[in-house]
Design brief:
Elements: H1 3-43, H2 49-69, H3 82-86, H4 89-106, H5 109-115, H6 119-131, H7 137-155, H8 162-185, H9 192-215, H10 217-222, H11 230-256, H12 259-281, H13 288-315, H14 324-327
């Protein structure tokens, strides 16, 4: 092996490391927040998913503002151009937050994770339309394998809940749009990733509080009986902190990878959630078709991950880290 080849491999490994670490960080945060929110909204029967969303936005604002004051992070001060630069992210952001929290409480954990797979083809479609990306056939086949499995699994769901299905499919649409537009907006020359997170939360926390008051959600939260339960309060605070970490890790993963890869990382994370839900969730109703569909979903997600990693190893070139997947010839 020549010195040039060795140097190229080292450079390729170094450039791949942030991608892998950001993906693992996002997967871990996404895994933990689903479990914590499931406990709050189902085990404790917390009646106010919108109030929980407000807590997560407030945590994001507080953490980033204090970090900016202490010069830990940097993002531009507010001016009249910022709303224009951000639009339509704030609207997508709050829709993603609220539909995600609502859907978590309406469905069994395994079925929630299966239906969330529909985010993947939606993200692929939006990346093609909005970002102008192109994907090889092998990637598209993997995506549709995930969807096939989701149809099989959902078609045999013995605990069908129309409201739950509606919320989770809305959450899929918002998540896909959030990932694609975030990728478009986090240009360091503009707001950067911290500016996008901070101003998104700032713009949407007040309207969300108003909606929460007008729907009675806020009143239900303040009169909730478990506020004197230390374990519940600790889990509520943990959910707020994880909400910030999830938003940050999503932006970070989208920065180093494509929006589609970020979405598929979330799907791969769901392997653990689905099987844990079967074993300890208590709300999974077993059927053969459901189990087969679930495993087809997971196989498609794993194949996508393999193709993406193989494409990265073949296609990564210095200075071309943002377009790896579209150029892969897998």
């Amino acid at each position: 092996m020549s010195a040039g080849q060795a140097a190229g491999e080292v450079a390729g490994a170094a450039s791949a490391l942030p991608r892998v670490l950001s993906a693992l960080f996002y997967g871990t945060c996404s895994f933990l927040i689903v479990l914590v929110n499931k406990a709050l909204l189902s085990a404790y029967s917390f009646p106010s998913p919108m109030f929980l969303g407000i807590g997560q936005m407030a945590a994001t604002i507080l953490i980033l503002y204090v970090s900016k004051l202490n010069k830990i992070v940097h993002f531009p001060d507010f001016d009249k151009s910022i709303p224009v630069k951000l639009f339509p992210l704030p609207l997508i952001y709050v829709g993603n937050h609220l539909s995600g929290l609502s859907s978590t409480s309406k469905l069994s954990l395994p079925m929630f994770t299966v239906l969330r797979k529909f985010t993947i083809p939606l993200t692929l479609l939006l990346e093609i339309i909005i970002l102008g990306k192109r994907y090889p056939l092998s990637i598209i086949v993997s995506v549709f394998a995930i969807i096939l499995g989701a149809f099989i699994a959902a078609g045999s769901d013995l605990s069908f809940n129309l409201e739950g299905y509606t919320f989770v499919l809305l959450n899929d649409i918002f998540t896909a749009a959030n990932g694609v537009y975030t990728k478009q907006k986090i240009d360091p020359k503009e707001l950067g990733k911290y500016g996008v997170l901070f101003y998104n939360a700032c713009f949407m926390v007040i309207p969300t509080v108003i909606i929460s008051f007008s729907t009675g959600d806020f009143q239900q939260a303040t009169h909730f009986q478990h506020w004197t339960n230390i374990l519940f309060v600790c889990q509520f605070i943990l959910s707020c902190l994880l909400g910030f970490l999830l938003m940050y890790s999503t932006v970070l993963c989208s920065h180093y990878n494509s929006a589609l890869t970020t979405t598929v990382v979330g799907a791969i994370k769901n392997i653990s959630i689905a099987y844990i839900g079967m074993l300890i969730g208590g709300d999974y109703i077993f059927s053969v078709l459901n189990f087969i569909g679930l495993n087809i979903c997971m196989a498609g997600g794993l194949r996508y991950s393999f193709l993406t990693l193989r494409g990265n190893s073949k296609s990564t070139q210095p200075g071309d880290e943002e377009n790896v997947l579209p150029e892969s010839k897998s």
